[in-house]
Design goal:
alpha+beta, 136 residues, extended, three-stranded mixed sheet, single chain, GMP Synthetase, Chain A, domain 3
Length: 136
């Protein structure tokens, strides 16, 4: 096969892969994430709440909170200066309150958008994995 034909085959494969990537994009989720990114309080928080997928009026959003992982693990990475040795300390309680408020605000923003009927939460396994914590 000539060099030109090889180049053409490689370009066609690359174009096909790019096309597949675009077809798999969830335009509604992308729009909702843009709306979330526009909010200063959501942007300022050290965790990126985002819509993972949107199907049949249900927006599945990421969260670092789950019964599977102690919120203290999250705080260790999100707020490295926070002393998490005492979960009942005022600073940890304040961090929990702030997390709850920001998560609630993110949900309200998404739910206020057209066609969004419900929010479901899903643990952000990728975030934890990127911080060395495996979540089953």
């Amino acid at each position: 096969m000539s060099m030109q034909k090889q180049l053409l085959v490689v370009l066609l494969i690359a174009l096909g892969l790019v096309g597949l990537w675009f077809m798999k994009q969830d335009s509604t989720a992308n729009h909702l994430n843009g709306v979330l990114r526009a909010d200063p309080a959501i942007q300022a928080y050290p965790y990126n709440f985002h819509v993972m997928k949107f199907e049949n009026g249900v927006a599945t959003m990421s969260t670092p909170r789950s019964p599977q992982v102690s919120v203290l693990h999250f705080f260790t990475y999100a707020f490295p200066k926070l002393d998490t040795s005492n979960p009942d300390s005022p600073s940890v309680i304040q961090a929990q309150k702030q997390l709850s408020e920001v998560q609630e605000k993110a949900a309200k923003i998404v739910k206020s958008q057209p066609n969004v009927k419900e929010i479901q939460w899903e643990i952000d396994k990728d975030w934890y994995k990127s911080h060395g914590i495996l979540v089953d």
